[in-house]
Design brief:
By secondary structure, the chain is of the alpha/beta class. The chain is about 40% helix and about 15% strand. The strands form two sheets. The chain has a five-stranded parallel beta sheet, with helices on both faces. A two-stranded antiparallel sheet has the order 6-7.
């Protein structure tokens, strides 16, 4: 396995994108969904000359700082993630070298092996996030598999993720032993709750939850299913 699979919590972090072409814009759009404290974007174009509305919207995000200038090695200081996404292999290598010198995670668009991480293809359905990667060998194959998975998964499981997110803290508050909690969680995800929610079948969904959840939580069932059905 070339890369270690990892999902990062970027709350409160500072990130850097060097190069703001189409790839850099995609990187920023995805990065902003993870709510970093600040993202610095470096490129040499003047923001006053930008006519693309989507590009302007990204740059005008309150968590984004755009600087019209070339990259300097000191720009990586204090950053959690850095993206080298310019059209110049020389500049991208300068970015990756600066990151390597400071042990900072770096993604390099034109030479993934010179960086320390790649951004996998992903499917996002509410709080459900599925990632997949070919280790940089074939982004085209990743896209193909992604499309197949999107068809297979659809919107069926997104509300179940929301439901489990509501149930989990209630179960843990009961302070039962781990094995008992695990059994409840596994029974829930193995049940027909996803189908019941997808079909908007309130009666079936409530029945499933009553049969699996501890009796002390039965009074919460209405709130647990609120706006899911």
């Amino acid at each position: 396995m070339r890369y270690y699979p990892l999902l990062l919590d970027l709350h409160g972090t500072h990130c850097l994108i060097v190069g703001f072409g189409k790839v850099g814009q995609r990187k920023l759009a995805t990065l902003l969904k993870a709510n970093p404290a600040q993202v610095t974007v470096l490129d040499t174009f003047s923001i006053e000359e930008v006519e693309d509305a989507d590009m302007l919207q990204l740059l005008n995000n309150p968590f984004v700082t755009y600087s019209q200038r070339s990259f300097e090695a000191s720009d990586v200081a204090g950053k959690t993630l850095v993206f080298a996404s310019t059209g110049s292999r020389t500049v991208n290598k300068q970015v990756s070298d600066a990151c390597a010198a400071h042990n900072i995670l770096c993604n390099v668009i034109d030479d993934p092996s010179s960086g320390t991480f790649t951004v996998p293809a992903h499917i996002e359905k509410g709080d459900l996030l599925i990632t997949l990667s070919t280790g940089g060998a074939s982004p085209a194959l990743s896209r193909k598999i992604k499309k197949e998975l999107e068809k297979q998964v659809g919107d069926k499981y997104a509300p179940v993720v929301t439901l489990m997110g509501r149930i989990r803290p209630l179960i843990l508050e009961l302070a039962n032993d781990t094995e008992q909690n695990t059994t409840v969680f596994r029974n829930l995800v193995s049940s027909d709750i996803a189908t019941a929610i997808q079909k908007k079948d309130q009666i079936a969904a409530e029945s499933i939850l009553r049969s699996i959840l501890p009796e002390t939580l039965h009074s919460n069932i209405g709130a647990l299913l609120h706006e899911l059905i």
